[in-house]
Amino acid sequence: MELLHEIDPDLLQKAADIAINRYPNLRVRLRRGVFWNFLEKNDRPLRIQPETAWPCAPLDSRAEDGYFLRILYYRCTISVEMFHALTDGTGAMEFLKTVVYHYLTLVGKTIPDQGMILRGDDLPDRHEQEDSFTRYYRPEKRPQPKEPKAFLLEGTHFEPAGCNVLSGEMQAEKIHAAAKRRNVTITAYLTAALILSIRDSCMDFGYLAPRRPVTVSVPVNLRTLFPSRTMRNFFAVANVCVPLKEEMGFEEILEKVCTELSEKTSRSHLERQIMQNVRLERNLAVKFVPLFLKKMILREAFLLRGENCKTITISNLGRVRLPEEMAAETACASLTLYPTEKSPVNCGVCTLGDSLIMTFNRTIMESDLIRRFFRFVIEDAGTQVKIRTNNWGYPHETM
Asked: What is the pLDDT of residue 339?
């Protein structure tokens, strides 16, 4: 979150000390067992840090007093970064809201929480620590259909290695109007624009449309279908798979995206994902495999069934709800999603007020699909786009 004034590190540290008390699932450290790693309470203080590296830089818990998260500040911005095993995007945003709320009150602002903030000076609610996967687990034998191999983005990796983070701040109402005009969601609209941009950027280099389908991984907040107040992980993934042809236009791509999203965000499909996750965790044969073998197996499964089955990820946190007095002190909010070895470009979307920010995080030099994406939404939605970048690898990059 970017505020309207420069951050005071001393007050931010006090805010962090208050906020972490509300989130026992974050105040943990890792212990290694013979068969499983497990998390236990971490009594060490959580130290804030100035942001000096690129967003989503590698996180070594030994350098973080055992924590798998960090609170960073840079000029007017407060950020939280964390390992995905602790929570999902919804939980991370709630924690950030708590930190910023207490920071602003320490600065001297009077802000009623209006039921929108989990205050750090309140006791944690037991429902916030619930394992909602177990709660909604229903055993069944129907397997999830196997995902096809996807088209993979390739490019020239930065030297030295790092992440180029490029954000486009758009007018939320213009994007909403463009989606509403077609009777689709903002996520579907942005996903289709992204797929079109990937196809066209391939053709710019003289290639045909990708032979393998372009598959966009869309994280789904399960709390919208399965009532839960948990601050632990409770999300699933909808892989939107679209085989492409050279002559396909945006409307045809959008239609296929909507069909895929409708099917893969249905309750029955998501229940099967919950069932698979919990069944694997409860499998006795898996439980008693030594940890070093388990790591090898899971790493291989991640590459074969996860990384090879997606082209890119777009995670839309949706609209951030803040008390009116807090929103008045906040310029914008954004989400940066880490890239991976086989998915070197990923996207995060976040909306606050009329500011919708789409952030591309990449480890490769090529930026053609990003340029095409923003040019498309400028022309189609009529929005202005304000570009920001950390310029990693490109000291003078322009759009």
From this structure: 93
Q: Which residues contact 84 (CB under 8 A, 6 or more apart)?
A: 233
Kindly report the length of the chain: 399
The domains spanning 2-125 and 164-389 adopt the same CATH topology:
yes
- pLDDT tens digits, residue range 205-250? 665 566 789 999 999 999 999 999 999 999 999 999 999 887 889 9
Among candidate residues 182, 171, 166, 179, the one with its CA nearest the CA of residue 378: 171
Q: Which of 212, 325, 195, 200 is nearest to 261 (CA)?
A: 195
Query: Per-domain residue ranges for the chain?
Result: 2-125, 164-389
How far from each other are the two terminal CA atoms of the chain, in whole angstroms? Answer: 24
Q: Which residue has the higher pLDDT, 292 or 380?
A: 380
**To which H or E segment does residue 317 belong?**
strand 312-319
- Return the H-helix or E-strand segment holding 11: helix 9-19
CB burial readout 211-235, b (16+ within 10 A) else e: eebbbbbbbbbbbeebebebbbbbb
35 pLDDT more than 70: no
Q: Does domain 2-125 correspond to CATH entry 3.40.50.620?
A: no
Say how many C-beta atoms besides its own lie within 10 A of residue 349's C-beta.
Answer: 22
Superfamily of domain 164-389: Nonribosomal peptide synthetase, condensation domain (3.30.559.30)
What's the pTM value of the predicted model, to 2 decimals? 0.91
User: Residue 331 and residue 43: Cα distance in Å, rounded?
Assistant: 34
Longest Cα–Cα distance of the chain, Å, equals 60
